[in-house]
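sorry to bug you again but im stuck and you know this stuff better than me. what follows is a protein written twice so to speak, once as letters and once as structure tokens for the fold. mainly i need to know what kind of three dimensional shape the backbone takes. anything you notice is useful, everything is just below:
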Amino acid sequence: MKTLTLLLFTCKLLLASTLHMSISASPARVNPILSTDSASSEITRWVFNSLITYDKDANIKTELAKSYRFLDETTLEFKLRDDVRWSDGEKFSAKDVVFTYETIISPDIYTPYASGFLHVKSVEAVDEYTLLIKYKYPYFKALEIWMMEILPYHKLKDEKNLMSSKFNQSPIGTGPYTLEKFSISSDISLKANKDYFIHKPNIDKIVYHFVPDNAAEFLMLKSGKLDLGSLSPLQLERQLDESFKEQFNIYEDIAHSYNYIGFNLRLPKFQDPKIREALSLAIDRQEIVDILYLGHGQVCHGPFMPGTGAYNKNVKSPKQDIKEAKRLLREAGYNEQNPFTFTLSTNTGTRGTYLAQILQYQLKKVGVVLNLRVMEWQAFLNTVINPRNFEAVLMGWSLGLKPDAYSIWHSDSNKKGGFNFIGYKNKEVDELIKKAEQTVNKVEFDRIYQKIFALIAKDNPYLFLVIPNSITAVNKKISPVTPSLIGVMHNAIEWTKE
């Protein structure tokens, strides 16, 4: 009998499958309402669920909700699933949703996601599985804000300080995986939630290997130690051999992100629009696309995603104009004897260092002295971004399928926990953002956002640089993998690994 039990256990271990991926930075907090960096969001999405989400074609579908309907233009009703349990066995209910909402809007919580809930008048649990949400006025993202993942009331109701809670490193969720192992600057492992309400994921375990260097990630891919990973254009074009192509499928599409230089507009040196315009004119964005991305990307002209109604196709980034850039700098009081000098801060683990060096070379042509400051991601967040301790930053930003300018571009978001960390303020932009929030007519909404796009691009608070292509290699042993508007991992719980 003991021999049979041991044999069955051994067979089970042999059949268990593991998905190996990499992560270049340690998550700050595995808590959906506090996850503001990509590493945290990457892990959080496995552990938690939202009421609604996107399907592979970017259409809204239910998740924790069973159904939804608008009773009128300011009242939304959700019927919740009654078969969902938290990973510790407790039942999910409307109480969890109310608690999450109240936590997000609490003055004790610093989260940029609170901006979407400013328009909510009340959230009421009618019964255990029915929610009634009333808005102060018709709101264009009345439905989409409920893509925010839900927190467990029973686990956090007595938490004194969620910002520093142990929960943020050992969360309880309803998602397809549970966090098994997590520590800073180390590998992260997740195990399949056997009680997941859709079904237990087919792949038993996910391991994120901590690999802060892109070159090291590529070597791990080539050696078969990773099942999925990002490729740089250089790797795609010049460093793939036939054995790699036999082992991996490659998926390429425009990324839902852009990279940019953001100026600290609280500093007098960047408050002169001539300076920002001169720096913009000094940059050859197409050269960056050609050199750094080998053509696998496009010039970014402004803050919203191409292909969406908010995108203003009439606004183009300026062509490099060395002569005009020098003239503007002279008007602002700078020349060869008194060059404009600033420090650009960025983080390791991305192509940011190479991009910074190209920018340094381009700006030198107009007499600008650019100093570089490069550091590890968590140090970058804690010593540069959060305390606003920078002159300029080189970063990337994700583009949503439905844009909401408030959290980045409205002056009210220039606060602790807000995404407007550069201190941008434009009264007309503020007014247009607030007007758009109550505009549910799509044609009118798009018209307003295209105007916001043009105003921001003209102000140069960011120098929008490049929208890169997303290039992903996936082990051919994994199936079914299908590309989609929201990425190749939209159906990951259905994946199997041979």
Q: What stands out?
A: Residues 90 and 154 are 8 Å apart (CA to CA). The chain has two domains: 17-221, 257-469. The mean pLDDT is 92.
